[in-house]
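Exercise 7b. Backbone tokens:
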């Protein structure tokens, strides 16, 4: 009897437990359905508020955000990004895993989009980006020879590491400098964070000329980000050699071409143009780049089998210098309709994340044959936008009227400048300038303020002088 009573009690307890579990699941499903239905029926502003409130639920809100994520992708790109941003704000390991899975399943949209929000999670997202960046696949060459290659997601994850801005991730980023595949994004991320402590490693990369040009450029960019004044002589030494070679070529230009000899920069000098671009530009480079660009030494119409990398990098380098000394040269090229065709496939990752406001201006091909090139004025417009001086907007508007097929390129440049103007700050003047009778030029590359010009004491590359009224 006692045993029967006990079995009956256990049976009733089991029924009660099952009923509680069933009711809990039903309640959870109702809550899930209510949140989802509320999102579907909400307006744009209300949808943003809903995903924001769900994000405050922490891990408990992730299943709701996951379901909303599937719906938002099919409706609006902005809604999709709003949900990704909400998941990143949850800030937990489960949220990071959800974003990682979204990266790996992305089909209808570029996987760079969810990767951007994975990077926004900082240290938590970094380990997943590192994991994705190590993925490889079997590929075949044109000769059908098999080889192991990084997957497309692997390459994009490598690029996304640049976007890490979490101070807590500095140590992890520092360890990646020794990883040849991830060295470049690690150096760039550390540069953005201005995180010191890795100068010795960066200096070794810079000093070894057997290293790739982009590695040396990013290493120098890191050194400048941490302590520009200390490492300025490294760039000055390279610019002195560049200026001397350019001067020699300009002096002997006619004789060299008459002899069918090389009359353009090569080797270390062309590498320097890439280094300047990779390091993110510097005011000191403006004069050297302007003189070279205006010299015409790069013009392929005067030499066989030469590409346009040199002028392409020079113009963008002038924009990134954010120096007043670059303005007149860029305005000159803004009026040119010359077609150029540089080899820029290796710069795609820079365009994707570091300069997202730059349109893919090289898609505007002109000429009799396909792939004849794109107008140099398009590159000059973007460089002027990067320069940051809103007074050039009227000149860009004139160029836009003369080149209606480049409208979105010019619009991008103008929007960059107007945004700068609206902020009340001129990017071009963000670095200190020298006033009347103050020192200018020299190894520090000091610029005079508007209305003044540098009166140099000599003609050698690192000559100094004083600012006098124009």
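Sequence design result:
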């Amino acid at each position: 009897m006692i045993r029967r009573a006990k079995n009956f009690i256990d049976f009733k307890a089991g029924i009660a437990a099952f009923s509680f579990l069933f009711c809990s699941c039903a309640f959870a499903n109702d809550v899930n359905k209510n949140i989802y239905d509320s999102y579907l029926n909400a307006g744009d502003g209300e949808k943003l508020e809903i995903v924001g409130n769900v994000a405050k639920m922490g891990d408990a809100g992730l299943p709701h955000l996951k379901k909303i994520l599937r719906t938002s992708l099919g409706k609006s790109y902005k809604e999709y990004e709003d949900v990704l941003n909400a998941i990143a704000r949850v800030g937990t390991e489960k949220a990071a895993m959800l974003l990682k899975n979204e990266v790996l399943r992305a089909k209808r949209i570029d996987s760079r989009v969810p990767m951007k929000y994975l990077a926004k999670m900082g240290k938590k997202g970094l380990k997943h980006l590192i994991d994705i960046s190590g993925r490889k696949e079997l590929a075949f060459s044109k000769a059908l020879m098999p080889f192991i290659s990084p997957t497309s997601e692997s390459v994009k994850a490598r690029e996304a590491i640049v976007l890490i801005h979490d101070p807590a991730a500095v140590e992890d980023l520092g360890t990646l400098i020794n990883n040849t595949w991830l060295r470049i994004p690690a150096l760039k991320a550390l540069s953005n964070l201005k995180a010191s402590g890795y100068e010795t490693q960066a200096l070794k990369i810079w000093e070894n000329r057997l290293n790739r040009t982009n590695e040396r450029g990013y290493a120098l960019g890191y050194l400048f980000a941490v302590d520009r004044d200390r490492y300025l002589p490294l760039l000055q030494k390279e610019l002195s050699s560049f200026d001397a070679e350019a001067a020699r070529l300009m002096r002997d230009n006619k004789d060299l071409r008459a002899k069918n000899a090389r009359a353009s920069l090569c080797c270390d000098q062309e590498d320097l143009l890439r280094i300047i671009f990779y390091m993110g530009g510097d005011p000191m480079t403006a004069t050297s780049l302007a003189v070279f660009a205006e010299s015409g030494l790069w013009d392929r119409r005067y030499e066989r089998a030469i590409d346009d990398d040199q002028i392409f990098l020079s113009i963008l380098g002038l924009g990134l210098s954010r120096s007043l000394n670059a303005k007149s040269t860029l305005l000159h090229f803004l009026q040119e309709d010359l077609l150029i065709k540089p080899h820029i496939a290796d710069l795609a990752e820079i365009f994707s994340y570091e300069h997202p406001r730059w349109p893919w201006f090289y898609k505007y091909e002109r000429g009799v044959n396909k792939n004849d090139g794109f107008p140099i004025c398009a590159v000059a417009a973007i460089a002027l936008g990067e320069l940051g001086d809103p007074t050039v907007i009227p000149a860009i508007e004139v160029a836009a009227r003369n080149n209606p097929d480049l409208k979105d390129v010019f619009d991008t440049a103008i929007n960059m400048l107007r945004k700068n103007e609206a902020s009340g700050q001129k990017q071009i003047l963000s670095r200190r300038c020298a006033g009347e009778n103050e020192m200018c030029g020299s190894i520090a590359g000091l610029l005079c303020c508007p209305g003044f010009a540098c009166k140099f004491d000599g003609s050698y590359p690192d000559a100094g002088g004083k600012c006098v009224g124009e």
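Instructor comment: Confidence is low (pLDDT under 50) at residues 1-9, 11-31, 428-432. The CA atoms of residues 220 and 279 lie 6 Å apart.
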